[in-house]
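Now for our target.
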Amino acid sequence: MFRRSLVLAGAVALVLAAAASAAQVKVRVEGKTRTIFAPTELTVSADNALGALATAAGAGEFYYHVTETAFGPYVDQIGLFPSGGVTGWVYKVNGVSPPVGADQYVVKPGDKVLWYFATFGPTGGPPTLELERAAQSCYRVYSVDDAGTRAPAVGAVLHVGSKRTVATQGATQTVLGCVGKHRGLLVRATLDGAVRSNALP
């Protein structure tokens, strides 16, 4: 009986220690043709970038698969989209593509973890888009490379809900789009060759 109590106490201690080490991070998952999880970024508890995906999968009830390789765990499918050829699943934290596997990247409170389906070319993966609110019903759109360098997303289109699109203006300094009244609808940006942006009200 005493031994059983010790084992139970040890198990509880391990669970509590894991919970204590987990950080509150925001996570979003972008598929090939649509957002799979949390267009507005949902806060979850995780200790690394792979854990953020696992927690998101539990909360969003979507499928993902991990293959063990010589280099560590490799996410080879999320939702309906398997990796293959020049396509695959990659992640960014705070806009930067880390040089380590997702299981090795320890997240910190407030980090933003983005998992996305990428098609790789001669220069690497696609840029990701970031949407920021400007004055009133206007938004700025940035294109972000793997190093986290932001540039105006020239030619980006804003989508208001699922029915209305608004072209953006600007080039060298900023790309801006104003959508007018859109009560209750989310706004996001797309651009050919880039991963769609986060959504904002």
Q: What stands out?
A: Residues 10 and 65 are 30 Å apart (CA to CA). Helices lie at 2-21, 49-60. Residues 1-19 have pLDDT under 50 and may be disordered. Residues 2-21 form the longest helix (20 residues).
